[in-house]
Amino acid sequence: MKENRVSQTGPLTDDGLVQLLTPTGERTPHPELDARVAHLDADALRAMYRDMVLVRRFDTEATSLQRQGELALFAQSLGQEAAQIGSAHAMTARDHVFPSYREHGVAHARGVDMADVLRLFRGVDHGGWDPVAHGFHLYTLVIGSHTLHATGYAMGLQRDGLVGTGDAERDSAVVVYFGDGATAQGDVNEALVFAAVNNAPVVFFCQNNQWAISEPTTKQARVPLADRGPGFGVPSVRVDGNDVLATYAVTQWALERARSGGGPTFVEAFTYRMGAHTTSDDPTRYRSSAEEEYWRRRDPIDRLRLHLEQVGELPAEFVAQVADDADRLGERIRTEVRAMGRPSPASMFDHVYATPHSVVDAERAWFERYEASFDAGSTSEGSHR
């Protein structure tokens, strides 16, 4: 697929945006990408629809749990389901993902238990799943830092002979997710430099939801974010991030390019954060209800639902079953989160390094003595409890 030309228009333009489904569900032909979605039958599209509905229900339940005091914080993915589910369905089991902190849809598609995702937001641990088993790294809260980790991992795949062999059972690639605000971070730009000069098999997947916390994309760039890629020698493409089919096709193309030894690609999925940045944010302070309504009419789940209805492939019994599955997921999430026990305070020293470390061991020993001193002091006069 041909990469985007450098644009002279603003960062919120829809110029050059790849789209296969209109907001009202009509199929738009695309000469280069139609073949990449031709094999997606009604069952495959319904599977994507189901995933998006379940992820949104997870999002709703987690937000409610935070409001009830069961979670310390939560980062919503509301409105970004198509960008995540479409791109995740384009991956193979051999690919590896480096997420930021709101890639709940990708986590679900990679087989991570959604209750385990909330262990981080409840403060139970730093991540409740095995990254190797799921090909899905732990969430990264430091904005943009994981793009360097992803690039390094991709270079490792390259050096291990797992790229460009022509063996479909062997070749692998990396996808790293980040937001529009992260593109202003030095780490992201450094990662693009490393990836470009090393021809690393990594897809930089930028979910441009138009708001870096409370700052709009227009205060971060004067041109579309994807235009930054060519400056590093990285081909780029802009895709309608609310179109699950287009996102699937573009990501599949970028991944095949990476696995075959073609190097990195920058994908900008133009979407919208329908919810708050996190549950500590109040978006009414910096954006209008008219803007929110505009994007609500472009809901990614509604778009696929309308398409399935138009082609007669959304039976009522399927819709009812998905709604029932969502209810059961919500109930399970509530039950399991509330049942999570409190970790030992000393467990913060676990897994700091892969092997024993003398400094960490000394700090753990000091902390355990400090904790024990409270119990000893509580039985004597002058307790410092």
From TrEMBL:
<keyword id="KW-0560">Oxidoreductase</keyword>
<dbReference type="Pfam" id="PF00676">
    <property type="entry name" value="E1_dh"/>
</dbReference>
<dbReference type="GO" id="GO:0009083">
    <property type="term" value="P:branched-chain amino acid catabolic process"/>
</dbReference>
<dbReference type="InterPro" id="IPR001017">
    <property type="entry name" value="DH_E1"/>
</dbReference>
<dbReference type="GO" id="GO:0003863">
    <property type="term" value="F:branched-chain 2-oxo acid dehydrogenase activity"/>
</dbReference>
<dbReference type="InterPro" id="IPR017596">
    <property type="entry name" value="PdhA/BkdA"/>
</dbReference>
<protein>
    <submittedName>
        <fullName>Pyruvate dehydrogenase (Acetyl-transferring) E1 component, alpha subunit</fullName>
        <ecNumber>1.2.4.4</ecNumber>
    </submittedName>
</protein>
<feature type="region of interest" description="Disordered">
    <location>
        <begin position="1"/>
        <end position="31"/>
    </location>
</feature>
<dbReference type="GO" id="GO:0000287">
    <property type="term" value="F:magnesium ion binding"/>
</dbReference>
<dbReference type="InterPro" id="IPR029061">
    <property type="entry name" value="THDP-binding"/>
</dbReference>
<feature type="domain" description="Dehydrogenase E1 component">
    <location>
        <begin position="50"/>
        <end position="323"/>
    </location>
</feature>
<dbReference type="InterPro" id="IPR050771">
    <property type="entry name" value="Alpha-ketoacid_DH_E1_comp"/>
</dbReference>
<feature type="compositionally biased region" description="Polar residues">
    <location>
        <begin position="1"/>
        <end position="11"/>
    </location>
</feature>
<keyword id="KW-0670">Pyruvate</keyword>
<keyword id="KW-0786">Thiamine pyrophosphate</keyword>
